[in-house]
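Late entry, NAP complex.
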Amino acid sequence: MTSSITKQTNTKTTQIVHVVAKDRHHCIGKDNGLAWHIPEDLKHFKEITTGGVVVMGRKTFLSIGKPLPNRTNWVITRDTTWTADGVKVAHSLEQVLELASDDCTDGKLFIIGGGEIYRQSIDMADILEITEVDLDIKGDAFYPPIPSDFTEVWRSEPKTDDKSGVGFGFVRYQKKR
Ligand SMILES: NC(=O)c1ccc[n+]([C@@H]2O[C@H](COP(=O)([O-])OP(=O)(O)OC[C@H]3O[C@@H](n4cnc5c(N)ncnc54)[C@H](OP(=O)(O)O)[C@@H]3O)[C@@H](O)[C@H]2O)c1
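Prediction complete; structure with ligand written out below:
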């Protein structure tokens, strides 16, 4: 499988970027919500994705509750009758990657979850923007194992959320060329 979408109609190549926060055991959520509140991580997520195109599963959209502002929001569902204000809808992973890449102006398409969508798209991803959260949540949504063809290219200094005392850090992985 190729690591980037190369459009048939032109030479544009879009990089697929996963943006995710996961705990020590790859848990990303519980009861269709996040299991922590780390404002600096939300800021980091906003900095990475603002102005861009985000792709998410229907359950993640429901957990957020509204389209993310200043981003083109794509939601994937198998329900062909499903609609929501302010979002574009696709019905397969292939379809969303094709259509959403047409909306990308800076060459990056951000996949923002949840577990089902990360799992289906990780082999197509080029960059993984991961927040490592130093918790052990007993949740029900998980990030897949990072494939061995990714290498860590950047890591922030360890951080601690002032209010909750939870440790966390940002890590970037890139697919080896
Ligand atoms: N920590 C993080 O960074 C982070 C980020 C995002 C989400 N989350 C968490 O992850 C959890 C949600 O993840 P999830 O795995 O339960 O759900 P999800 O991946 O957000 O959404 C799953 C839904 O997407 C649709 N779908 C999946 N594959 C599809 C395909 N190939 N074609 C068409 N539609 C497809 C289906 O919708 P239909 O049922 O409508 O067909 C499916 O039910 C929540 O707890 C959320 O808070 C965490």
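The chain has one domain: 12-175. Will revisit in the morning.
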